[in-house]
Design brief:
This protein is of the alpha/beta class. The chain has one domain (7-294): Alpha-Beta Complex (Spore Coat Polysaccharide Biosynthesis Protein SpsA, Chain A), CATH 3.90.550.10. Helices cover 35% and strands 24% of the residues. The chain has eleven helices and 13 strands. The protein has a nine-stranded mixed β-sheet with strand order 5-4-1-6-11-8-12-10-9. A two-stranded antiparallel ribbon has the order 2-3. The longest helix is centred in the C-terminal third of the chain and has 19 residues, at 276-294.
C-alpha cells in the first residue's frame, strides 16, 4: 500500500543576499506579502492538501520563523480583551499544525538541506516547498502533483516553461509527455546555458519526493557552486526509478527576486478583501498619472 504524503519540508537556511540589507538579520522567508510572510503562504498551500506536519530547515538568524508559528499568549490575550476576534482567530490558526525545526549548520545547497530532514521524514514520501516560489492561492499546483504521485507511485517535480534568457537559473528536464501536462523525465541538467538546455521546461520550487532520495543524497558529491545539488541526486534516481514532471500553467512569482516579489505583492493585494478596492483605485490613478506625464 502506497503511503500518503503527510509531511512537507521547507528549506529556509539560505542567506537571502538578493534582498540585503533587509535580510541581514531577518529571514527572507519572513518578508511580508500584504499581511502574511512568504513562508505562511507556502504552509497554507500544504495545509490545503491535507498536510499537517512541517519540517523547516533553518540557519542562523532564522528564529523569527519559529516564533511566527509558535504561541503568543500576551498578543492573544491583548486581542481577546479588545474584542478583535477575527485577528485572534488568524493568530491561533498559525499554531494548529505540527512543526519541527532542524538547523542546517552550513549552507551546502538544496540537496543538503533536504537530507537534513531525514530523521523526521524517515521512510515516508514527502513534499518539498521552496517558499520564495510563490504560487497563486487560486492555483492548485501541489494538489495536482499529489494526484500524480498517488497514480504513479513515484517522484514528481513541478515544471514550468521559462524564457531561454532565464534558463540558466534552473534545473531543466528532457522528457516525454505521457498524459496531458504529465511528463516521464528522461534527463535533467542543472543551470545549463541556453544553447545546451534539453528543453524550456524548468524545475520550480515544488517536489514530491520518496525516501529513496536520502541514500542518494548521502553519496552525491558537491556540484556547481560547491553545493550538493538536488538535481544531481535526481539524475541518479532516474536510472533506478521513474521520475515524473507536472507542467504548471498557473501563476508563479519568484519571491527570491525583487521584481517577482513586487509582482506577487501587487497581485495578492488585489485579491485581499481588506485592501483590494483601495489599492486598485490607487494603481489606476498612478498609471493614469504616469501616462499623463509621458504625453
Amino acid at each position: 500500500m502506497t503511503k500518503k504524503v503527510c509531511k512537507a519540508v521547507f528549506p529556509a537556511a539560505g542567506l537571502g543576499t538578493r534582498f540585503l540589507p533587509a535580510t541581514k538579520a531577518s529571514p527572507k522567508e519572513m518578508l511580508p506579502i500584504v499581511d502574511k510572510p512568504m513562508i505562511q503562504y507556502a504552509v497554507e498551500e500544504a495545509e490545503a492538501c491535507g498536510i499537517k506536519e512541517f519540517i523547516v530547515i533553518t540557519g542562523k538568524s532564522k528564529r523569527a520563523i519559529e516564533d511566527h508559528f509558535d504561541y503568543a499568549h500576551e498578543l492573544e490575550d491583548n486581542l481577546k480583551s479588545k474584542g478583535k476576534n477575527a485577528q485572534l482567530k488568524e493568530i491561533q490558526e498559525l499554531t494548529r499544525a505540527q512543526f519541527a525545526y532542524i538547523r542546517q549548520g552550513v549552507a551546502l545547497g538544496l540537496g543538503h538541506a533536504i537530507h537534513c530532514a531525514k530523521p523526521f521524514v524517515k521512510d515516508e514520501p514527502f513534499a518539498v516547498i521552496l517558499s520564495d516560489d510563490i504560487i497563486d492561492p487560486d492555483d492548485k499546483l501541489l494538489r495536482e502533483m499529489m494526484k500524480i504521485y498517488n497514480k504513479h507511485k513515484g517522484t514528481v517535480l513541478a515544471l514550468q516553461q521559462v524564457p531561454k534568457t532565464e534558463i540558466d537559473r534552473y534545473g531543466v528536464i528532457a522528457g516525454k509527455e505521457i498524459s496531458k501536462g504529465v511528463f516521464k523525465i528522461s534527463d535533467m541538467v542543472e543551470k545549463p546555458k541556453a544553447e545546451d538546455a534539453p528543453s524550456d521546461m524548468a524545475i520550480i520550487g515544488r517536489y514530491i519526493l520518496t525516501p529513496d532520495i536520502f541514500n542518494i543524497l548521502e553519496k552525491t558529491p558537491p556540484g556547481k557552486g560547491g553545493e550538493i545539488q538536488l538535481t544531481d541526486a535526481l539524475k541518479i534516481l532516474l536510472k533506478r526509478k521513474p521520475v515524473y514532471g507536472y507542467l504548471f500553467k498557473g501563476r508563479r512569482y519568484d519571491g527570491g527576486d525583487k521584481g517577482g516579489y513586487l509582482k506577487a505583492t501587487v497581485e495578492l493585494a488585489l485579491k485581499n478583501p481588506s485592501v483590494k478596492d483601495y489599492f486598485k483605485e490607487y494603481l489606476l490613478e498612478k498609471v493614469a498619472s504616469i501616462s499623463e506625464k509621458e504625453k
